[in-house]
Write a structure and sequence with these properties.
heterodimer, A: about 325 residues, alpha+beta, outer membrane lipoprotein receptor (LolB), chain A, Phosphorylase Kinase, domain 1, 4 helices, globular, B: about 210 residues, mainly alpha, about 0% strand, elongated
Chain lengths: ~325, ~210
């Protein structure tokens, strides 16, 4: 009889863990749906690297799809307005409006809507408990990575709507590297279109438009990334015309389903300062809040790896980029 | 309640020194003033961050010192719309600003030591701003930073649909950091949009409106 106690208790523990995981993943699925489908307005505090800022967000969904507006509350007014087709940035301090066409965002599916067994190999999803946030009862969920190549998240979700109220991004040392917290949030049935109109007067601003749309293509065979953190796969390849580069920039996207890393490859144009030994591009690693970047030169091309992932990930990926010839 | 009295009460409240009765009396006073409530809510939130959730190490004494120093400073001017409640708000604005200054300091200058004596609140704030370098990418050249920001923006634009936080990844691009404009010493860290503009002018032909 005693022999069975141990396996049975193990079984009970594993069942309990599985139930807890299911509960957490259900909450995350609800959250992912809520963020995209609810109509809401709110103010949030954003602690990023060494900055603390307040901004507002308006989010509306109707027959025109998802539309949203983000606006700074302090300093010079800045707005980002996004709909299905375009992204508009209004920067009052620069007196400029930048209009970009929407990119092929749908290519990467929403991982949280269907948390797969694959994703569970790399993260644990746990309900930590209950709390209070933004004056609402909250469910606290943790997303815990199983290795150092992805961040953890602690999320406070509104118990009623599952809307995100606060998020912490946590590194492998358990330190919070980025925080975001709503100070007020109103979920409403309808949002008037006027709430999504630019508030910043921009009549005399210069308007800059993206010249061409990003082109999603088959990845060229000239480049190979030989080492990726376990579970990361290439999900997308595009070329972009970018403001900072005369030549189109190759863009490879790698993801484990939740953490996403971009690898950009560009051919630098000749530059005088380069001869003085100064780099116009990132060489080595750097970071900004939760975001890490790593750059190096390979075969006369600049490789830049960037993403909201730990330094270990961008380093591993960046160091393993190889040029294997132009066999397009 | 006089300004001083209110300030004192608020300070005691946030320090957790008020009894239940005192607390409810104070809250009743505040209850009738919606503007003040919002301000207090924000302060409470920041207080929560400082006490429980702030990234990295936390110097609560420092926050406390700054709060108190700033409260004793001349009040900040309030906007015209606040006229009616100006008397009430002034000290609270002071508290709120103190808290936000404190949190910037806590987040950014974790190991900074302040002496308890001699310098006044103003010096302290200046000190924080001067020390708070490298707000953005820790790179030396503006051009490198600008490129990085451009790539990061592109990264989020391409992938934010999958982000855990919806559109919120764009937050860094809406942030406006006043210090970059005000402080000549920090000009090399000029915020990315300001520099992006130079890039745009150089690299992109302006389209007719």
């Amino acid at each position: 009889m005693v022999k069975f106690v141990f396996p049975i208790s193990l079984w009970i523990i594993s069942v309990t863990v599985a139930v807890a995981e299911n509960d957490a993943t259900q909450w995350l699925q609800r959250m992912a749906t809520a963020i995209k489908t609810l109509n809401y307005k709110g103010t949030f505090v954003y602690i990023h690297g060494r900055q603390v800022e307040a901004m507002t967000i308006v989010h509306k969904v109707d027959e025109l799809g998802e539309r949203e507006k983000l606006m700074s509350l302090n300093g010079a007014a800045r707005e980002i307005i996004r709909d299905q087709n375009k992204l508009i940035c209004i920067l009052s301090d620069n007196k400029s409006v930048i209009i970009e066409k929407s990119r092929a965002r749908k290519i990467i599916p929403d991982a949280l809507l269907m948390i797969s067994a694959k994703l569970r190999k790399h993260y644990r999803f746990v309900v930590i408990g209950n709390g209070r946030m933004t004056g609402r009862k909250a469910k606290i969920i943790a997303v815990e990575p199983r290795d150092k190549y992805r961040y953890g998240y602690r999320l406070w979700l509104d118990k009623r709507s599952a809307m995100l109220l606060k998020s912490d991004v946590i590194n492998d040392k358990g330190q919070v590297v980025e925080q975001l917290m709503f100070t007020n949030l109103t979920i409403v049935k309808n949002i008037d279109d006027s709430a999504l109109k630019p508030e910043v007067a921009h009549k005399d601003f210069k308007v800059f438009k993206q010249l061409k749309k990003a082109r999603v293509q088959n990845a060229p065979k000239a480049w190979r990334v030989s080492r990726l953190p376990v579970g990361y796969k290439m999900k997308m390849y595009t070329t972009h015309d970018m403001r900072t580069s005369k030549m189109p920039v190759d863009h490879f996207v790698y993801t484990d389903g939740l953490s996403i890393v971009s690898v950009y490859i560009e051919k630098p144009s000749p530059d005088k300062s380069k001869q003085k030994g100064e780099n116009r591009f990132l060489i080595g690693a750097t970071s900004m809040g939760a975001i890490n970047a790593y750059g190096r030169e390979v075969a006369g091309y600049q490789i830049t790896v960037v993403g909201e992932v730990p330094k270990a990930s961008v380093m591993l990926i960046g160091r393993s980029v190889e040029y294997i010839g132009s066999r397009k | 309640m006089s300004n001083d009295k209110l300030t004192e009460q608020l300070s005691a409240y946030f320090d957790g020194e008020l009894t239940r009765l005192e607390k409810s009396l104070l809250l009743k006073q505040i209850e009738s003033d919606s503007e003040l409530k919002i301000k207090l809510g924000r302060y409470q939130l920041i207080e929560d961050i400082i006490k429980n959730q702030a990234p990295g190490s936390i110097d609560l004494n420092f926050h406390d010192r700054v709060s108190k120093q700033l409260i004793s400073e001349p009040a900040y001017s309030s906007g015209a719309s606040l006229k009616g409640v100006q008397k009430w708000i002034k000290p609270v604005v002071g508290v709120a600003i103190a808290a936000s200054v404190a949190i910037v300091a806590i987040v950014s200058v974790q190991n900074l030591q302040y002496s308890d004596t001699s310098d006044d609140g103003n010096n302290r704030i200046t000190q924080i701003e001067n020390v708070d370098e490298g707000t953005r990418w820790a790179v030396k050249r503006q051009e490198v930073e600008s490129r990085l920001n451009s790539l990061l923006f592109n990264h989020y634009e391409t992938t934010s649909n999958n982000s855990i936080r919806g559109m919120l990844p764009f937050a860094p691009f809406v942030v406006y950091d006043k210090r970059f404009k005000d402080d000549e010493k920090l000009k090399r860290n000029v915020s990315h949009e300001q520099f992006d503009q130079q890039q745009i002018n150089q690299n992109l032909q302006q389209e007719p409106r």
